[in-house]
Specification:
The longest helix has 20 residues. The protein is of the alpha+beta class. The strands form 7 sheets. Strands 3-10-11-17-14-13-12 form a 7-stranded mixed sheet. A 5-stranded mixed sheet has the order 21-20-22-23-24, with helices on both faces. It is built from 13 helices and 24 strands. Bound molecules: glycyl-adenosine-5'-phosphate. Glycyl-adenosine-5'-phosphate (GAP) binds next to strand 11, strand 14, strand 17 and helix 9.
C-alpha cells in the first residue's frame, strides 16, 4: 500500500516533523523546503546507505566533498552556460511565467489566456558575487549538478590514491536550479541534493559498464524497500538526451503525482574530461567539445597496452536525495484498521532508514526509578551507534505508539513497574504490533540482531 495522494504525505510530513515549507512564517518561498527532526534523520540514513554501497562495500570508488560555489569557467566548458536552459514564456494577461514545454494547448495555467510571448531560453543556473565588489566581473555559479567538481578533481584523485581505470569518484551534495515551475512537493525544487557517481572506463567498455550500473542501481532501490513493480527502466529518447549523453536510462518510480524520474544513468562518453582537459588535441576526443585554452591540467590516462594517452569515458548514475526521500515515504506509507473503531498510519521503512531506531518509553513519566531505568537503556542502545534512539517521556503509551508508528520507529521498548522487579522490558514491533518481554541483559543482542538480520 502507498499514500492515496500527495496531500496525505505532505500533511504527515508537517505533522510529524519530516518536511516544512521553507521561510514558512514569511509566507514561504516556492521550490524550497526545510527538513525537520525526522526528515533530517531519514535523509541522512538514505545518503549513508548510498555512501556505504558506493564506497565502503567496494574498492574501486573514492569519495569527495567539493565546493558548491564554482568558477564560471567550469560551466562555460561543460556547456551549461549555453545549453542548461528551459524554454520560458510570459503570459501578457496575468504576467505569470511558465515553461512552454509544460503548457497544455499553449494556454496560461493561471488565467487561461492564450496571449503568451514567444518562448525564449532561460538559464537555470544561480549566480552570486564573490568578494566585496558586486560589479559583475567576479562571480560564481551555484553548481547545478555535483559532478562537474568530480571531473575537475580527476587528476587530484588519481595522484593522491592508488586508483586506475576502471574506477569511480562519488559525491553527495547540494545542487541548485532556478526551476521556472517547481512543483509536486519535494519532487522538483530549486535547492536539492544529488548522490552522483562518475565511473571512468575505457571507451571500448562503456556499453557493458552502462548496463552494469543500470542493474546495480535498480536493485539498490529495491534493497531500500521500494517494490519492484513500482519501478521501471526507461530508455531516454535520443531527442530528449542531455547535451553530454550518448545514452541515458532513467529509473522511473510511481510517485503520488504519476510516474517520473527517480535517477538517471547516463553514458557521458569522453565529453566531460575532454571538455576540461588541457591540450585537447593530444587526445582523440570522440565527442563534440568546446575548445579549451584555460585548463592547466591534462585529464587523460595512459593505455597500459599501447602506452598511448586517452580520455576515459564516464558512466554516471545520478540520483536526487529529495526524490529518494519522497519515494521512500510513499512506499512506506500504510493506513490500516486496528479494529472496528480504530485505524493507524504506519511508515514501514526498512530499519536502516527509520529516523528513530528504537523509542524507550517509561510507562509512568513521574516515577524516578522507571525514568532512570529507561534513561540507562536508552544510553546503552545509543552507544551501539546504529542510529538515533529516543527517550519518549511524554503522553500516554497509546499516543506514543501512534507517534512512533507514524514516524516509522521499528521497535518501542516500554519500561513498567514489572521492569523494576524482574529487570525485563516490553518490546513492541511496529509492523505486527506484537509485544514480548525481554530481559534487559539480552536487550543489546536482541537489538543488534534486529538490525543485522
Ligand atoms: N549530473 C547529471 C544530472 O544532474 P539530471 O537528470 O539533471 O542529471 C539527476 O539530475 C537527478 O537529480 C534526477 O534524476 C533527480 O533525481 C534529481 N533532480 C534533478 N533536478 C531536480 C530538481 N529540480 N528537484 C529535485 N531533484 C532534482
Amino acid at each position: 500500500m502507498v499514500a492515496k495522494s500527495m496531500e496525505e504525505l505532505v500533511s504527515l510530513c508537517k505533522r510529524r516533523g519530516f518536511i516544512f515549507q521553507s521561510s514558512d512564517i514569511y509566507g514561504g518561498v516556492k521550490g524550497l523546503y526545510d527538513f525537520g527532526p525526522m526528515g533530517v534523520e531519514l535523509k541522512n540514513n538514505l545518503k549513508q546507505s548510498w555512501w556505504k554501497s558506493m564506497i565502503y562495500e567496494r574498492d574501486d570508488i573514492e569519495g569527495i566533498d567539493a565546493s558548491i560555489l564554482s568558477s564560471p569557467q567550469i560551466f562555460k566548458q561543460s556547456g551549461h552556460e549555453e545549453t542548461f536552459t528551459d524554454p520560458l514564456v510570459d503570459c501578457r494577461s496575468c504576467k505569470s511565467r511558465w515553461r512552454s514545454d509544460q503548457l497544455i494547448n499553449d494556454t496560461c495555467p493561471n488565467c487561461k489566456s492564450k496571449d503568451l510571448t514567444e518562448p525564449r531560453p532561460f538559464n537555470l543556473m544561480f549566480k552570486t558575487a564573490i568578494g566585496p565588489v558586486d560589479d559583475g566581473s567576479s562571480f560564481a555559479y551555484l553548481r547545478p549538478e555535483t559532478c562537474q567538481q568530480i571531473f575537475i578533481n580527476f587528476k587530484n584523485i588519481l595522484d593522491s590514491t592508488s586508483k586506475s581505470v576502471p574506477f569511480g569518484i562519488a559525491q553527495i551534495g547540494k545542487a541548485f536550479r532556478n526551476e521556472i515551475t517547481p512543483r509536486n512537493f519535494i519532487f522538483r525544487v530549486r535547492e536539492f541534493e544529488q548522490m552522483e557517481l562518475e565511473f571512468f572506463v575505457k571507451p571500448s567498455e562503456d556499453l557493458e559498464w552502462h548496463k552494469y550500473w543500470i542493474e546495480k542501481r535498480f536493485n539498490w532501490w529495491i534493497e531500500q524497500g521500494i517494490k519492484k513493480e513500482q519501478l521501471r527502466q526507461h530508455n531516454v529518447d535520443k531527442k530528449e538526451l542531455s547535451h553530454y549523453s550518448k545514452e541515458t536510462v532513467d529509473i522511473m518510480y510511481n510517485f503520488p503525482h504519476g510516474e517520473e524520474e527517480l535517477e538517471g544513468i547516463a553514458n557521458r562518453t569522453d565529453f566531460d574530461l575532454g571538455s576540461h582537459t588541457k591540450n585537447q588535441k593530444e587526445f582523440s576526443i570522440n565527442s563534440n567539445v568546446l575548445e579549451n585554452s584555460n585548463s592547466t591540467t591534462k585529464l587523460g590516462v595512459k593505455n597500459l597496452d599501447d602506452k598511448k594517452p586517452y580520455i576515459p569515458y564516464v558512466i554516471e548514475p545520478s540520483a536526487g536525495v529529495e526524490r529518494g526521500v519522497l519515494a521512500l515515504l510513499n512506499e512506506a506509507f500504510r493506513e490500516e484498521k486496528i479494529d472496528n473503531d480504530n485505524s493507524r498510519i504506519v511508515l514501514s521503512f526498512k530499519p536502516h532508514l527509520s529516523p528513530i531506531k528504537a523509542a524507550v518509553i517509561p510507562l509512568k513519566k513521574n516515577n524516578e526509578n522507571i525514568v532512570n531505568m529507561s534513561k540507562a537503556i536508552k544510553n546503552k542502545l545509543q552507544k551501539m551507534a546504529l542510529g538515533r534512539v529516543m527517550l519518549e517521556n511524554s503522553g500516554n503509551i497509546g499516543k506514543n505508539y501512534r507517534r512512533h508508528d507514524e514516524i516509522g520507529t521499528p521497535i518501542c521498548i516500554t519500561v513498567d513497574f514489572e521492569s523494576l522487579e524482574s529487570n525485563s522490558v516490553t518490546i513492541r514491533d511496529r509492523d505486527t504490533m506484537e509485544q514480548k518481554r525481554v530481559n534487559v541483559e539480552e536487550l543489546e543482542d536482541y537489538y543488534k540482531n534486529y538490525f543485522f538480520n
